[in-house]
Specification:
Pfam families: Cytidylate_kin2. The chain has a single domain, classed as Rossmann fold, CATH 3.40.50.300. 55% of the residues lie in helices and 13% in strands.
């Protein structure tokens, strides 16, 4: 595969989506984020809100337990995972691009020339950012951050058996709270 792919994994509120979009704009290549959800929805028949939520939850409860023990069939999440893997692989084969989230770093391992990036920041930076940028209520943004990160980590672990955010799983980890969004964009573009 001759295309160069940048995958952006990120903590909630760290600006990873914004960084991915700015990197893609600067390199004049496409960025796939919500577009992935739309592609998965079109192919699966599931509503995009369901796909967005399913992409941050590891299958759990009695059904997943039964599946793990061979007493039940695949879950909706497993079905969506297979579609997601295929779509991400096809996008990487088609063109150079930036892919935000959805375990693209893992899906493309060994299949593409990939720069795997993880964006993180401290709790104060992220809490302030989700209130200002996403309109989260100011009462408890820290709790919302913890919940979202916990779900993303569980989903990533379930499907990849890798620790989400663990530096050894990425080529580059950047603290957007310290470096700033624009500096992160610049550093990633330089490595492209």
């Amino acid at each position: 595969m001759k295309n160069r792919i940048i995958t952006i994994s990120r903590e909630f509120g760290s600006g990873g989506r914004t960084i991915g979009k700015k990197v893609a704009e600067g390199l004049n290549i496409p960025c796939y984020d919500s577009e992935l959800i739309e592609k998965i929805a079109a192919e699966s028949g599931f509503h995009k809100n369901y796909i967005k939520e399913a992409g941050e939850y590891a299958p759990g409860g009695m059904l997943a337990s039964a599946f793990a023990h061979g007493t039940a069939g695949p879950t909706n999440e497993d079905y969506l995972w297979k579609i997601q893997c295929r779509i991400i692989t096809e996008l990487a084969e088609k063109e150079s691009c930036v892919i935000v989230g959805r375990c693209a770093d893992y899906i493309l391992r060994g299949k593409a020339d990939c720069l795997r990036v993880f964006i993180h920041a401290d709790m104060d930076f992220r809490a302030k950012r989700i209130v200002e940028v996403y309109g989260e209520r100011e009462a408890s943004p820290e709790q919302r951050l913890k919940e979202k990160d916990k779900r993303r980590a569980a989903y990533h672990r379930f499907y990849t058996d890798m620790k989400w955010g663990h530096a050894q799983n990425y080529d580059l980890t950047l603290n957007s709270g310290t470096l700033g969004i624009d500096r992160c964009v610049e550093l990633i573009r330089q490595l492209y």
